[in-house]
Amino acid sequence: MTRQIAVGATPPSPAVLEVRIRELEARTATLAEVVRLLTHALESNPMAGPGDTTINTAARKAHEILMAAR
Question: How far apart are CA 67 and CA 7, in angstroms?
Fold first, then answer.
């Protein structure tokens, strides 16, 4: 979903750019929360195996957060 700042000959208005910046900030915040959640789960039990419920729960929650942010 790559978009350039200017499409065509006329650059976007400041209002349009502001909306896009807010969207990017919200997506960045969502990704930061997902990384924090997964990192916390992995740090709490670094030797956990693939079936560890803490990591599975964190991964499921991270997926839910990403899907809700779409």
Answer: 28
